[in-house]
Specification:
Length: 253
């Protein structure tokens, strides 16, 4: 019996590497994985030495195939939970409200809750052989939960509806063409190297500025332009104050 944790977390070079570690189940998300993902984001947020998170899956077959169907419906009777506070979405909420940048490095299948997790990251990069989809209408006869409203915020409405209404997977090339993925990589080694390089570029920036960018861009996307502008102004502070607060210095190269 495999006793290794469902998520492996390693801090290195001011980055937190978050590894989905259920390759035998295509890195499907069970309760253990959800809890460990919440804990990983809490560590990223509370450790001042950590500036960027990188999430990837092991096994070479999947980033994550979504919820573990062996657990779906097996928990017995429970109290009603509002849609936006379902316990099975707690890891999505942690990623959604994280203030530090998170990169999803995708290799293989990225389906259902796996795609939702990736979409709650800020940057998505993938190998050319990866596939993306929301197969819930075919696999469990239901809908895709947060993806119903989340996916059209990431890709054009028609593309989001095509993926969800047909339950057919999308190629990495098409995902790149419509902006679901920001970079394509040749293989898993190149993928992790690219994620590392992007994270290094982020680390060279002022961390206060990065948090402000995330706040204004993510929250402002659901606001009227005037409200988003006010949000941006509320977060403004002088460069001198930001430098004093963080000790950041402009890179010399």
């Amino acid at each position: 019996m495999d006793t290794s944790p469902a998520v492996i977390v390693e801090a290195r070079d001011r980055k937190l590497f978050i590894t989905l570690n259920r390759p035998h189940a295509l890195n499907a998300q069970n309760d253990e994985m959800r809890d460990l993902l919440v804990a990983a984001i809490d560590r990223l947020e509370t450790d001042p030495d950590l500036l960027v998170g990188i999430v990837h899956g092991v096994g070479g077959r999947a980033f994550s195939a979504g919820a573990d169907l062996n657990e779906v419906g097996s928990g017995g009777p429970g109290r009603p939970v509002p849609q936006h506070r379902r316990p099975s979405w707690r890891h999505f909420e942690a990623f959604r409200w994280a203030t530090k940048p998170i990169i999803a490095a995708i290799d293989g299948w990225c389906l259902g809750g796996g795609l939702e997790l990736a979409n709650y990251c800020d940057i998505r990069i993938a190998t050319g052989s990866s596939r993306f989809g929301q197969p819930e209408p075919r696999t469990v006869g239901g809908t895709a939960g947060p993806a119903l409203h989340q996916l059209p915020r990431v890709i054009p409405l028609g593309e989001a509806l095509l993926m969800q209404l047909t339950s057919q997977p999308m190629s990495a090339q098409r995902a790149y063409e419509i902006g679901l993925v920001q970079r394509l990589c040749a293989d898993a080694d190149a993928l992790l190297a690219e994620a590392d390089a992007i994270a290094d570029q982020m680390i060279e920036c002022n961390p206060t500025a990065l948090r402000r960018i995330k706040r204004v861009v993510r929250w402002g996307a659901d606001m009227a332009v005037e409200q988003a502008e006010m949000l941006a102004l509320m977060g403004e502070e002088s460069a001198a104050q930001a430098h004093a607060d963080t000790g950041w210095e402009r890179p010399t190269r």
